[in-house]
Amino acid sequence: MITSTARARVVARIADHLASRDPGHPLRVAVDGVTAAGKTTLARELTAAVAERGRPAAHLSMDGFHHPRAHRHRRGRDSADGYYADAYDFAAVAREVLGPLGPGGDRRYRERILDLRADTPVDEPPLTAADDLVLVVDGSFLQRDLTWDEVVFVDTAFEVAKTRGTRRDAELLGGAAEAAHTFEHRYHAASRRYLAEANPVGRATVVVGNDDVAHPVLRRIGGPAGATARLFSYGTLQLEAVQRERFGRVLAGEPDLLPGHRQDWVTITDPDVVAISGTDRHPIVRRTGDPADTTKGTVLTVTAEELAAADVYEVDDYRRVLVALGSGPAWVYLAKTD
Fold this sequence. Notes:
Distance between the termini: 25 Å
Radius of gyration: 22 Å
């Protein structure tokens, strides 16, 4: 359940991005992060938001792809190395989920192989995914030897995650003190190793700061650290003042045309956006499908961090989608109803 308007907006921006992605097979999305970062909550919210946009969506938890308990604890109940190396059956995830949903796959995937609570194998019939399914998978260590189309990293400080996890798992782990010990010496010790060895924050295509669940921060979207994207602007993102405030620099751009779309106007009520842009009257574009309707604008090359900054700037009247310009594909903010 989304707890605030600020959170709803971040979830919506990520869902817009995922719903626009078409790799030619079901979109395989990982929601990664340290233990108790808030991965499952965000994964469920994203699944619901993508479905609201008319795209088939499903949620899968790595809880169903644990190794049996004897395998998980073979190095000791407190072993961080045991949690890192032995907790999850990544080979099964690749074989039963990611491979079938990837290029050339048969679209038949399994939701789980183990009942975690009962510690018993599960042999349920596979599901058949729609060609345009968005499958959202939450879990730990998901960028180890697995292939995803998008990775959302839930970036939560260890102390914050430890407090959440201790509160959540106190009864399961034998009390608050025992839960805190387990998080420090097993779960988060393994997570620190993962951060050091796999660089999951840098490799993720979306990064969300989640220390404050009511006010998450969209830090990057559209690619790993260092990635760039093409963004078509027909409005205030072309202004130097807006670019300096949002991106900290003035961007070089190339003129271009968006066919099949007609420009309209919208009144902006967000005082921060009005202050940055200098006006409450902003252009907005709607799809008509008529090739005679064209919208002039500028193609900007932005970093993935700057694309996140643009997402934060644009108000809820807009939805970011991929479109075909005369020069090729680019992101653009269209009217939300389109």
